[in-house]
Amino acid sequence: MKKIVVAGFGPAAHRLVEALLQRGFDGRVTVIGEEPRPAYDRVALTSYLSGVSAEDLAYPVPSGAVTRLNSRVTGIDRQARVVTVEGGEPEPYDVLVLATGSAPFVPPVPGAGHAFVYRTIDDLDAIRLAAKEAADGVVVGGGLLGLEAADALRSLGLRTHIVEMSPWLMPRQVDEGGGSVLRSHIERLGLSVHAGSGVQEIVTDDRGRVAGLRTPGGTLIEAQVVVFSAGIRPRDELARACGLEVGERGGVVVDPGMRTSDPSIYAIGECALAGGMVYGLVGPCFTMAEVAADRIMGGDGTFDGADLSTRLKLLGVEVAQFGAMTGALDVTYMDPVAGVYKKLFISDDARTLLGGICVGDAAPYTSLRSFVGKPLPAPPSDLLFTGGGANLDLPDDAQVCSCNNVSAGEVRAAVTDRGCADVPALKACTRAGTTCGSCVPMLKQLLEKSGVEVSKNLCEHFAHSRAELFDIVRVRGITTFSELIAQHGQGRGCDICKPAVASILASLHNGHVLDGERAALQDTNDHFLANIQKNGTYSVVPRIPGGEITPDKLIVIGEVARDFGLYTKITGGQRIDLLGARVEQLPEIWRRLVEAGFESGHAYGKALRTVKSCVGSTWCRYGVQDSVGLAIALELRYRGLRSPHKLKSAVSGCARECAEARSKDFGIIATEQGWNLYVGGNGGFKPRHADLLAGDLTTDELIRTIDRFLMFYIRTADRLQRTSAWLESLDGGLGYLRSVIVDDALGICADLDAHMERHVATYVDEWRATLDDPDKLSRFVSFVNAPGVPDPSIVFAAERGQIKPVVTR
Amino acid sequence: MTWVDVCGYQNLLPERGVCALVGDRQVALFRTHDGSVHALGNLDPFSGAYVLSRGIVGTRKGEPTVASPLHKQVFSLVTGHCLDEPDIAVPVYHVRLDGDLVQVAVSV
Ligand code: SRM
Ligand SMILES: Cc1cc2nc3c(=O)[nH]c(=O)nc-3n(C[C@H](O)[C@H](O)[C@H](O)COP(=O)(O)OP(=O)(O)OC[C@H]3O[C@@H](n4cnc5c(N)ncnc54)[C@H](O)[C@@H]3O)c2cc1C
Ligand code: SF4
Ligand code: FES
User: Fold this and answer.
1) Fewest CB atoms within 10 A around its CB: which of A312, A645, A686, B11?
2) What pLDDT score does A314 carry?
3) Residue A352 and residue A324: Cα distance in Å, rounded?
4) CB–CB of A727/A680 below 8 Å?
5) Chain B environment of A535 (Cβ under 8 Å)
6) Distances (CA, A) of A236 to A215, A282, A290, A434, B1
7) pLDDT tens digits, one per residue of A345-394
8) What is the DSSP string of A366-423?
9) Which of A459, A495, A513, A775 to probe the B interface (max B CBs under 10 A)?
């Protein structure tokens, strides 16, 4: 039985093992990794800081392999065919695969030992811990990874600097023109760029703590966290020590079959020097793993180099480069105002596309990357100026996903022969789009062009998405469901479209949800302004803004609960739920509550729920701002605002985050200077930490930004799409959102502001208005022919001194 | 068949339901968009709660329907069959208008 040993357990090793098992390997594979965990998605490493867990990042461990974690390979005895492992049993092999990856390069400057690197989950844990005590950070290296690290520091709340040796950022990907446009984007995000500079030393204070970074020019950049991201070095030390051939500048030399100078040792991934190149992208590393697996199984696969196209997926700035970075001819489009720079390189006969660079708009990357080395599909000026490039027909052999080496032909085949009808199906079928995700727009395009209807229809009654219906209602000034369905739909609606349209009408026209025909559109919760429970009773949740409540009001709630025999519970939203009310009791309960100054809490509505708060600076010894005051102000501002799904918020008085603001649709964390605004958080089914949208805002700026965020969401989200899913579905993500609501890129901010002002000005408490209107009240009866008779099917038992429903079935 | 007066027609709102107590039966009454009246049992067989009268009234492929307010299973107002799970059905009762009066007949 053949014994394969793999040194290193990163993405390349993982893919190798998978590929071996897929090809029917029946010997023994042992993977030895130095990290404390199995291989994980290093490309998505940064998402770990925004709350994606180590488990989420982990690749599934292939079941047919033996894994030894926390174990470093220390030597290779090529004669005896054995590797030695630190603190463990040696491991004999028939075939050894080196997949040790690479290590960040740390320049040998004084104090370098105090700096961090950005490569593993453990590195990120260390950086996160250090950032807690820090205010400023500096990243050395303005390349792809450096910018990613800089964004990470910024998201940890640090004022961030980037030091780059070259005269411009991302020198390996963009030329000088692109670099200057990129710089202005990055600076606009609040990062300081020191290009054409370097590191002299890391300065420490008298207690040995990092105080800053000194540049060769003598400038001191103050920072308590320094991260090196100045390139990588292949980890070829094992190969060197046992006499395998290594490259002059590092990397284990391999042939096209990934074999080293010892025929029983292979090297794959970032530690390998293939065709004179070390590949720092995961796509080629995967291909190498496939080739090595094929060879080990007796095949003759070869690795013939790989596409080094890249696209920066962070900082909200689109940067992309594909194919060559020079050419006989080039065509440039530059718009410094919009921050767009695009350049194509073409052959001297102006026929063949050689490559391109994009900053600020990566559309050409998506549409043109596959045409590298092929005839230009249209005149270059058209491709750059009109964006007409987006609709090109890709040749079958064009590579769509470079991470997983999937061609347009394979994607088309998956659609036509294997019935893939959406992006998730394509991902499962072809692996395309599963790594960096930058090819997903192209997958969508291919799907659409293959004639697959990617239906966004709300339901059988409307061939429109919610966002489209919203625009129709807004632009045409439609005010009733009947009008809308007669003109733009068919049939008489259902439990999907009716509440959705009711919500749109409420968002646009405010007004009472039980007015006229609108009453018939509401789900039972909105219809009775209460939440239905399993036995047909309802719950009552009065608004308690910010969770602050006076003893007198608490007493009223207690008295009401006692008098009506309701079950009482503190909710997860810092308020009080009274459960077990029968329909005909609701008006009497609410009359008492409204008299005592309570309002509807909209627990039943797709609307603002709660703005939770911590005690904040008024009481807490750590608080830096009045979180309770702000939470109350926000809750009162947005109460009653109907939206595609419920909205939750929280305000914390300092970075300790006792209000859990980052799990909210919009969460606010106080800073010394003002407020940090995070958006797109979610608890619930698929938890997500909110992303920092803007930092150190004044209260006015904060409110204006939230106003726009909410209104833009309300206008464009799908039905029942929380802000987290909406944000993730936005093309261009957080950067795009920022451009729309902070930079007003679409010119709609004034409109959004006015819309919110209208909401605030026209708010009335739904329950008070209901109590004042005999017509609306008339629906709160148990039986139309016996209004006062309690529903005899509603029965309670007792538990812990309160009622509980008994459902007999 | 005994017809029982339950309410005035104006008590029924377009595309909404109410519940009537007929003997010891709970009857859910619905008025659809075209003005006609339908009567089903009020018991939602999926949850065991008497709530069907509080569901959203609409159509599926032209057939008038109500969706349970608890877990949204859709029932035909004409046949009482659940359109999502055809094995399940709720009783359908006779209902008519006598002038302005809505009358229901439940056989014993
Ligand atoms: C009462 C309460 C539980 C409690 O006793 O603590 C509750 C109760 C319900 N939740 Fe909740 N949720 C309650 C706090 C939460 C929280 C915590 C929070 O808000 O801080 C969460 C996680 C945070 C979040 O939403 O991101 C939460 C996540 C959910 C979800 C999952 C949402 C998601 O995006 O995955 C649902 C389902 C849904 O909305 O589709 C849900 C749905 C419901 C519904 C409405 C289900 C239903 O239709 O019957 C429950 C009925 C409420 C009622 O009053 O009858 N509830 N629910 C809490 C009311 C808070 C309040 O004062 O308004
Ligand atoms: C923050 C970040 C973002 C990135 N973004 C992208 C991107 O967007 N697109 C892209 O294509 N690529 C990206 N990359 C690069 C990509 O992650 C790498 O190309 C890929 O991880 C290489 O895989 P590998 O298995 O060869 O090496 P590695 O991932 O480095 O794995 C090697 C493993 O071997 C272990 N090891 C080393 N020596 C030993 C030993 N002696 N004994 C035992 N174990 C050992 C190491 O600890 C490590 O766990 C990114 C990388 C980082 C750090
Ligand atoms: S978040 Fe900060 S201010 Fe608020 S209670 Fe916690 S420690 Fe105090
Ligand atoms: S190109 Fe990275 S996942 Fe497809």
Assistant:
1) A686
2) 61
3) 12
4) yes
5) 49
6) 31, 18, 21, 29, 93
7) 988 888 888 999 988 888 788 778 878 888 887 877 777 765 444 456 77
8) HHHGGGTTSB-SS-HHIIIII-GGGGPPPPTTSEEETTTTEEHHHHHHHHHTS---SH
9) A495
* Distance in angstroms (rounded) separating the CA atoms of residues B91 and B89: 7
pLDDT given at position A385: 67
Contacts of B61 in chain A (CB under 8 A): 460, 491
How close does chain A come to B107, measured CA to CA in Å?
19
Position B83 pLDDT exceeds 50: yes
CA distance A181 to A541: 52
Alpha-carbon distance A420 to A413, whole Å? 9
Dihedral of alpha carbons B61, B63, B64, B69, sign? negative
Task: Give me the mean pLDDT over the B98-106 stretch.
Answer: 93
Supply the pTM of this predicted model: 0.56
pLDDT of residue A293: 96
Using most ligand atoms within 8 A of CB, pick from A310, A313, A402 the residue to mutate for ligand 4.
A402
What sign does the CA torsion over A142, A144, A148, A149 have? negative
- Find out whether A773 and B10 touch, Cβ atoms under 8 Å: no
Token pair belonging to A728: 């993730």
pLDDT on residue A389: 44
How far is Cα B7 from Cα A296, in angstroms, rounded to an integer? 83
Cα distances (angstroms) measured from residue A584 to each of A524, A528, A777, A782: 14, 10, 9, 6
Within 8 A by CB and 6+ apart from A529, the residues are A513, A514, A586, A590, A600, A604, A766, A767, A770
Report residue A148 as tokens. 């990613």
Q: Is there a contact between A308 and A326 (Cβ–Cβ < 8 Å)?
A: no
Which pLDDT value is given to residue A453?
A: 64
Chain-chain contact of B67 with A492 (C-beta, under 8 angstroms): no
Predicted pLDDT at A640: 95
Asked if residue B104 lies in contact with residue B94, where contact means CB atoms within 8 angstroms, the answer is yes
Pair type for strands B25-31 and B16-22? antiparallel
Tokens, residue A807: 């459902």
**Residue A646 per-residue DSSP state:** -
Residues of chain A with pLDDT under 50: 387-390
